[in-house]
Amino acid sequence: MANIVQRIRDYLQTPKGRENMEKAKTMARDPENQQRLRRLMDQVRGHRTPR
């Protein structure tokens, strides 16, 4: 049985996997999504965020 990393690599080689990768890259470039991710990471790290 392939390990999880190999299964992910295999998926990313499929047309659907490549499509999802491009969609994720587009979403990652959005400043609003970047701000959401920063807030989430601060919560995970235990930092308090102003509202």
Automatic annotation (TrEMBL):
Ranges of Basic and acidic residues composition bias in the record: 16-45
Region (Disordered): 1-51
Name of this protein: Uncharacterized protein
Organism whose genome encodes this protein: Microbispora amethystogenes
